[in-house]
Amino acid sequence: MFTSTFRLLRILYTIIRFRLDVFIPFELSPWYIRYSLGLVCAIGRQKASENKGERLRLALESLGPIFVKFGQILSTRRDLLDDDIANELARLQDKVPPFPGEVAQAIIERDLKASVDELFAEFSVTPLASASIAQVHTAKLHSGEDVVVKVIRPDIEKTIRQDIGLLYTLAHLVADLSADGRRLRPVEVVTDYEYTILDELDLAKEAANTGLLQRNFVNSELLYVPQVHWDYSHRNVMIVERISGIPVADVEALNKANVDMKCLAERGVEIFFTQVFSHSFFHADMHPGNIFVDVSNPKKPKYIAIDCAIMGSLDDADKNYLARNLLAFFQRDYRLVAELHVESGWVPKGTPVHAFESAIRSVCEPMFAKPLKDISFGQVLIGLFQTARRFNMEVQPQLVLLEKTLLNIEGLGRQLYPDLDLWVTAKPFLEKWMSEQVGPKRVLEEARKQAPQWAGQLPQIPNLIFTALSQMSHQEERMQAQTKAIEDLSGELKKGRKNVPFRLLGLVSLGAAWVITDPASLSHLKEADFASMGLFLVGLYLLVLKP
């Protein structure tokens, strides 16, 4: 708790130090905030606004990797930010202040258990680029291959765990304050983010992710993934092939190379949807610092992806609901959008579909007054999110990475080609994918996937058939026995019902015999005693002996 409190105080100090209050819209705040804190912050605010983008970048850098990641995400949304702020935040992608190269060299030698001279023919102590979690150095193997060496920042895990602890504290606070806070599921979101960012600290996992992404796009014309040198990859060090390409954010260089920017933007969208729906494994950190362009064929440019530390995936149910939601939205089938939200469990089962449909229509219909190319997926998500608050829609942690990546892709695509129509590119792909989920092709694909398992079970089929037939035979015998028992019981019940009057008469006879018997005359019988004995015998017969 002390650590979280200290970290929170440092964040507040950073906000004051860098005058980040210029980003607070005091004019929209309640009057008591506007005329108290707002008046205090107004002192020197005009001067502070002159270079607010630079100060925001410096503040995020000083707060550490989690905040740098936040700035990286913001930097791709130029449709939401002023150019000066976006340009400053873009520097967070690969221009974070580096740590000393000698420290990186010591980490390499410690992890790989060999000196730099033994490992490389050449090694540059000066880093090529530096990011929030790691930095990279250029090198050459003794075989002559050019490589880059990625090294995790020293002691970075301690800082990240402190920030995660603070986020958990804030998440629990938000969840406890209101129903809206619980609906946002902040604790689950932080847990998901903790898992993701801690994975970034293990370069062995990143190497494995890189290998899988490379296999998914082997011989692809859309995306190239550099080769991992597995013998040199460990938890804190990773060595991969050095690629050459133009950074995707360097639009001026791309234009000089006569790159078809429309094709480049559309291919980026196609890569995203291919990863999500066809591979179920997508690069979830696609900010411009991790993307380069191979311009050897400028009319058909190819993307180059690096830094596969953060990857996402969706199960078949989420993919199906997501595709159907997107198609229904752009077809203006708001009824289906509402039904899918209820069916998937994203909103409570008791949600009135007609009311939810009406609310979605009121938010989304005005968007279609604009051309499709001008519709922002980011604005759509924000609008739907605000609408769903009324219907207790919970945040889906498994979709957080996907939403973030979609926002990155849209922002990047619009930066490359402002007239990018995301829907024109995405619709054919989604329709094709949906058609492949039903019909003969899907059946054959599932049969192909299950064939190895079926082949392994094939030798067991005769025994399984024999066991099943034996069980059926025994089951039939048991059924016959049960049927006979039921028939016998039924007969007994019927017989019992017929004998009820006789049993009652027997009871009456015994009772009468008891009444007329004189205990004092048992030593010398009288006529009444003979009558009593007769009644007793009749009663005994009717109660016990009569079948």
TrEMBL record:
Origin: domain of life: Bacteria
InterPro entries assigned to the protein according to its UniProt record, in alphabetical order: ABC1_dom, Kinase-like_dom_sf, UbiB, UbiB_bact, UbiB_kinase
Residues annotated for ATP binding in this entry: L128, A129, S130, A131, S132, I133, A134, Q135, V136, K150
UniProt xrefs under CDD domains: UbiB
EC number: 2.7.-.-
Metabolic or biological pathway: Cofactor biosynthesis; ubiquinone biosynthesis [regulation]
Positions of the catalytic residues: D285 (proton acceptor)
GO cellular component assignments: plasma membrane
Molecular functions (GO terms): ATP binding; protein kinase activity
Domain named ABC1 atypical kinase-like: residues: 91-340
A biological-process GO annotation: regulation of ubiquinone biosynthetic process
Keyword field: ATP-binding, Cell inner membrane, Cell membrane, Kinase, Membrane, Nucleotide-binding, Transferase, Transmembrane, Transmembrane helix, Ubiquinone, Ubiquinone biosynthesis
Pfam family, one: ABC1
Task performed by this protein: Is probably a protein kinase regulator of UbiI activity which is involved in aerobic coenzyme Q (ubiquinone) biosynthesis.
Family stated for the protein in its record: Belongs to the ABC1 family. UbiB subfamily.
Name of this protein: Probable protein kinase UbiB
Organism in which the protein naturally occurs: Marinomonas algarum
Gene for this chain: ubiB
